[in-house]
Each structure stands twice: as structure tokens, then as C-alpha cells.
Specification:
The protein has 23 helices and 14 strands. By secondary structure, the chain is an alpha/beta fold. The strands form two sheets. Strands 4-3-2-5-6-1-7 form a seven-stranded mixed β-sheet, sandwiched between helices. A seven-stranded mixed β-sheet has the order 8-10-11-12-9-13-14. The model is unreliable at about 495-505 (pLDDT under 50).
């Protein structure tokens, strides 16, 4: 933030805003910039009044109108140049007070003439239309590794831990990325209390709880690997060949970090499972974003939520950001804005811009069932590295899925003829195959015995596969994928490096 703030103040911007819940850290960075530019910093709050941070002089004025009257006298003086930090003004702006808005516009105009500046600081920013073009937002990122290292050193000193292995230290720092300094300090302190030292697992656990409590993104433990997926050989091979692209050697080679992957296809065919396995294949933390949580009812809240998600993902990077059924979140972006005032379009545009321009190693894995709801600009090259289509599994893939499902539920695949089972489930998805075996387990458990092939056969008689219920939609999806997406699984004699597109079906 300091470079951007220095530039704006030097250019004479009269109104700035810093959105952050880390008030103390933001104030420290603003003070540092003011010192380097030789600006006089004042800080105002509704409880303390106006404080001259250099001399410590306090002027009582809890009302912002009283404050602006004081600032008028300060800003009329050419020297020194003043920077006034306003902590609690957002609460007053929420009341839509016309005299306050008018007075603030007058003060901003006076600040512009005299080379002064006003900085709004708070955890949110909602400006009335009259001030939207008067205030410029300054980006304030979450703490980086160096800043978290300073926090950790403070905890170690307080706990009288004199030495810490460098690998343990770096593991703790990586686990804390994405937290504020206060949240990281609490996580480090909790680790000391629980384990008597620094344990990255405790810190990662607390980060997962914190992000889940925030409600926008959550940390998902990546327990699924590529071997847990039946079939999809070409897609898994593509992921394996890019698993080293986030390493230091890849960066030195000049290889840009992969941007992301879009997986479209029939429900239940392993798209979400692949998204989870991607994090394991890359050896990166996995974040899950529910696009429905991004959209809020307050004006500007949705855009602010998306910025918070991006900020968190970039702070934790390198990481994998998983967005499941993305078409549901962006299906309204192509509307005229009559239903939501254009919020979906603005959020969608911001997300597209970030996908195109992001320079932090955040690998986005998005899944979609109904790709027809996605706007065309979302699908073009540059947003994602590749788009794969996942079709119904063939006989060989169904046999692999049966092996995995049976083993996952604590039975030996060798006790079942999975080739025959695969033939019985010709139009089944992986999710439906697992549902059939679970049904067979229930029947066997009720009879007090182990499941038999006859139980599976009986379960299939009650199962109507999705391919029969939605044959028209699946045919339309296959038609759309023809020539547009890569096939996730090899068919026939296709080789490992196959890059052919979808054949007509």
C-alpha cells in the first residue's frame, strides 16, 4: 500500500479510502508514508476527537461537522501540508446526512487547493453517490510472509522460545498466510499454548476456522488424490504434467504459473472430485468458494466480497481456488440488470478481469454442469489454460470406479467381478455406481451379512440412471462440447499425449 499511497499523496489526491479491518497496521503504514513525505498526520475518531500525532495535542470534536469546521481553518494555511485520518466517518455516512455530505465536498475541494488530504479508514466503504467520484480507494493487502514473520518473532519472544527450526518457522508462516496480523498472532499463541511450540497444523486448523467463519471462502483438506478417480486419464495426465509449474525452478525457467482449469460435463462424473485432487497433485492448499455467498443484499457488498475473496486467495498463494457449479453464480451476468441492478454483471466483469490479469499463482478450478448458462467471454482462451469435457465413463473406466468404490467402503475388489459389474451399469456415472454399492451395503447389513453380487444386481433394478432421465440435455451438452473442449478420458486407441477434441456422439 505504501507505494500507492505515496503516489496519490504526491499527486495531490484530496480524498482517499483504505478498507481494512487491520486498523493499527494500516495506521502505521499511513504514518510511515506521511513521515517520508513530511506531511503532518492527524487522526480523528468519535471518541478521542482530533489528535495531532506528532505533538500529541487533542482537540475534542466528536461530531464530524465540528471536525470539518476545524479542518477548514487548518486547510486554509499553506504550510505544513496536512493528512487527516478519519476512523469512524463511515458510520455517519450511513445515515445519509445531506449537510455532512455537502460539508465534506467543500472540505475536499479546499484540501485539493492547499495540497492536503483526507483518508477514510474502516472495514468497509459505502459512499453516497455524491462522494463516489471524490474518494479514491487505496489497496491494502493482507500481511505478507515478512510481516507475519515479525509477528511470529514477537510471539516467540513473549513465550521465551529462543530457537526455532527454519523449516518449522517457514511452515508456520505459510500456514498463516491469508490471516490478518491479529488473527495470525492469535493462531501462533494458540499453538504455543496447545503444543508448547509452533505447530503448522494448529495454525492451519485455526486459519480454516477463521475463513469458514468469514463465510466467503473455506480451506478444504485435500485428502483426495488422482488415484482416487476412476478413468479421466487425459485430464489426470494434464494435471500431472503441470504439477511442477509452481516451483522455483519453473519460475527460473521462465514458465508462467498455470491460470486454471474449467471442467464441464455430466453431473456425477467426477468433476468436483478432480477439483479436490488437483490440490493434492500440485501440493498446494485448497480453497473452496461458494459464489452464492459472494452476492449480498447491500449495494456494493457483492463487489466488496469478491475483492475480499481475491485478496485472501492471493495472500495464501500459491493455492488452488475451487469454484463448484460456477454457472449458477454467473448465470445472471448476461441479463440487462433489471433483476439485480446490474450486480451480477459487475461481479462477473471484475472476476473476468482478475482471471485475465492476475499475476499471483492462484490456480482456479471451476466445474460446470450446464455450460450453456456461461457467457461466451468466460470461455475464451486466457481465462483458463484448458477446458475439459467429462462424458459418461466407458466399460474400462466403470471397472476402475468399481474397484475404487469397493475399496473405499472397506471391501476387497477381488471378491467381486468388477468387469461384469461394469457391464451391468452401462449408462451409470461414478456417483451412481457408488450409490448402488451403498444401497447393497444397507441391504446386506440389515440381513447381518456381507454384500453379494445379487445385492448389487437388485440395487441396479431400482436405479434409473441420469443418462436416461436427461438424455436430451446430455446429447445437447455433447453437441456443444464438440470442437470446443478436450476429452477428459481417452477413447479407443487414443494415446497419452492425445489432444483431439470431442467427436460427434
Amino acid at each position: 500500500m505504501q507505494n500507492q499511497l505515496t503516489t496519490y499523496l504526491s499527486a495531490g489526491y484530496p480524498g482517499l479510502a483504505v478498507v481494512s479491518s487491520e486498523e493499527a497496521r494500516a495506521e502505521a503504514e499511513i504514518a510511515s508514508v506521511c513521515t517520508s513525505l513530511k506531511r503532518r498526520l492527524h487522526a480523528w475518531s468519535s471518541t478521542e476527537g482530533l489528535v495531532d500525532t506528532k505533538e500529541g495535542r487533542v482537540t475534542n470534536c466528536s461530531d464530524p461537522l465540528e471536525l470539518f469546521q476545524l479542518l477548514e481553518g487548518m486547510f486554509n494555511a499553506k504550510e505544513p501540508r496536512h493528512v487527516v485520518l478519519l476512523r469512524d466517518l463511515q458510520l455517519h455516512l450511513d445515515q445519509t446526512d445531506p449537510p455532512l455530505i455537502r460539508r465534506m465536498k467543500d472540505i475536499l475541494r479546499l484540501a485539493k487547493v492547499g495540497g492536503h488530504a483526507i483518508i477514510l479508514l474502516g472495514c468497509r466503504l459505502k459512499l453516497p453517490p455524491e462522494l463516489e467520484h471524490e474518494i479514491t480507494t487505496v489497496d491494502f493487502s493482507l500481511p505478507d510472509a515478512n510481516q507475519l514473520r515479525t509477528v511470529l518473532d514477537g510471539i516467540l519472544k513473549s513465550a521465551k522460545i529462543k530457537s526455532l527450526d527454519e523449516a518449522v518457522r517457514e511452515g508456520a508462516i505459510q500456514s498463516a498466510l491469508g490471516l490478518t496480523t491479529m488473527e495470525a498472532e492469535n493462531a501462533f499463541a494458540l499453538s504455543v499454548v496447545e503444543t508448547g511450540g509452533i505447530d503448522h497444523k494448529v495454525i492451519a486448523r485455526e486459519k480454516a476456522r477463521t475463513l469458514k467463519r468469514n463465510g466467503l471462502v473455506e480451506v478444504v483438506e485435500a485428502t483426495t488424490c488422482l488415484d482416487d478417480i476412476g478413468g479421466l486419464g487425459l485430464l489426470k495426465d494434464w494435471l500431472v504434467r503441470r504439477s511442477g509449474a509452481f516451483s522455483a525452478s519453473a519460475k527460473a525457467y521462465g514458465l508462467p504459473a498455470p491460470k486454471g482449469l474449467l471442467i464441464v460435463g455430466i453431473p456425477g462424473t467426477g468433476k468436483s472430485l478432480t477439483a479436490k485432487a488437483t490440490a493434492s497433485a500440485f501440493g498446494l492448499p485448497l480453497l473452496r468458494l461458494d459464489m452464492g455467498r459472494v452476492f449480498g443484499g447491500i449495494v456494493g457488498q457483492s463487489e466488496a466480497n469478491l475483492r475480499a475473496v481475491i485478496q485472501t486467495a492471493e495472500a495464501i498463494s500459491p493455492c488452488v481456488l475451487w469454484i463448484d457449479e460456477i454457472e449458477k453464480g454467473f448465470s445472471g451476468s448476461s441479463s440487462s440488470g433489471s433483476t439485480d441492478g446490474g450486480t451480477s454483471s459487475r461481479v462477473f466483469g471484475s472476476f473476468l478481469s482478475w482471471m485475465q490479469e492476475k499475476n499471483k499463482p492462484v490456480f482456479v478450478v471451476a466445474t460446470a454442469n450446464d455450460v450453456s448458462k456461461l457467457p461466451p467471454e468466460f470461455l475464451r482462451k486466457g481465462r483458463f489454460d484448458e477446458m475439459f469435457f467429462v462424458d459418461l465413463p466407458d466399460a474400462q473406466e466403470r471397472a476402475q470406479i468399481w474397484d475404487i468404490v469397493i475399496a473405499r467402503h472397506g471391501r476387497k475388489p477381488t471378491e467381486f467381478d468388477t468387469v461384469v459389474l461394469a457391464q451391468m451399469c452401462e449408462l451409470y456415472t461414478g456417483a451412481e455406481i457408488e450409490a448402488v454399492f451403498v444401497d447393497a451395503l444397507h441391504e446386506a447389513y440389515a440381513d447381518g451379512r456381507e454384500p453379494k453380487p445379487s445385492d448389487i444386481l437388485e440395487a441396479t433394478e431400482h436405479m434409473i440412471p441420469l443418462a436416461q432421465l436427461m438424455d436430451g440435455q446430455i446429447a445437447a451438452l455433447r453437441h456443444w462440447a464438440k470442437g470446443r473442449a478436450r476429452l477428459a478420458a481417452s477413447r479407443g486407441k487414443q494415446g497419452r499425449r492425445n489432444t483431439r477434441r470431442i467427436d460427434s456422439n
